[in-house]
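Can't attach files on this board, so I'm pasting raw text. These are the components:
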Amino acid sequence: MDLLRRLFGGRGPGGPPDNALHLYVRCGRCGAPVHVRIHLLNDLTVEYDDNEQVSGYRLRKEIMDARCFRLIYAELTFDAHRREVSRSIEGGEFISQEDYARLSAPSTGAS
Ligand SMILES: [Zn+2]
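---
Top answer:
Structure tokens for the assembled complex are below.
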């Protein structure tokens, strides 16, 4: 754990304070919103360059919504400082936290 502490000891502003990344996705089939919490220390896969230096991190995440239970596959890449570089998704779409809150609010009827 000392290594991790050192890695994160001097991080600048803008990083997630709790080392967590929150993903909000929407199922491409039934439209159900899903919130996934990614732990930046535990959930990322390290990638190395030719010099065996850490070149970045990768995350592959299988997400299942609670309505139709179809899997959604999200893939994110990060730089060596665990800052997000890119993201892609299959079977759904990324939505904002606001969209998630709106979609997961109790429905008032028509849909
Ligand atoms: Zn679904």
